[in-house]
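Slide 14.
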Amino acid sequence: MPPDADASSAAAPAPETTTDRVLGGRLTLRQPVAGHRVGHDALLLAAFAPVDRRCAVDLGAGVGSAGLAFLARVGQAQATLVEIAPELAALASENAAANGLAERVAVVTGDVRVLGRPSGPPLPEAGAADLVLCNPPFNAHARHRTSPDAARARAHMADGALLDEWVRAADRCLAARGVLCLIHRPEALAELLAALAGRFGAAEILPVHPRPDRPAVRVLVRAVKGRRAAPALLPGLVLAERDGTPTAAAEAVLRDGEGLPPA
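Slide 15: predicted structure.
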């Protein structure tokens, strides 16, 4: 795959950045000092993806964290990273090269909502992917104060219909029986299941808890295009013990690069 499917990302202004190692040093990511920073969400999303997938699309890729983490786990896969912010798309291209993944990655600077349409970019091709990773903006404007940082706000704020638009984009990108993996807040679960209805089924829902005595702060959802089976609630993942030390299960995923079962 070409390393960059949109030359405009090369001309993006360079933000002040840091270079950080994740997955126990298996992946090195350059990312902006200000704005949205790579955290657990992207790594959990990549770990929830099935390892039998070979053609992935990462929607809202940022600096490439989820897509590149998936490629680090699955040696035969390729990925198209889609990011609307040119400066982040440029960093995604750089990160792919820095991690020896450039030949397996295409970076597209564009709006998720036009993917797979005649007016959209040539990549990703409609109906060609077997996996979509989706880390959509989380926070409804009505419930959260908007960040003054434009990049952080774009990453975290969502209008009511945006989740449905991202699920529609994933549907257009995926072949029949393709898998959508998505991470979101638990309070959006009803909205998410409504967006999946009629397009995706057999959804597996994995709650993510900060500690064993705390409510879930994230849900991971994995669903299959064209299936009609009912959703299933999986045993939750707990990130830390009551004293704050990471659990063995969290360390296996976030440090050792293992997948989240069943994957």
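Speaker note: Residues 79 and 197 are 26 Å apart (CA to CA).
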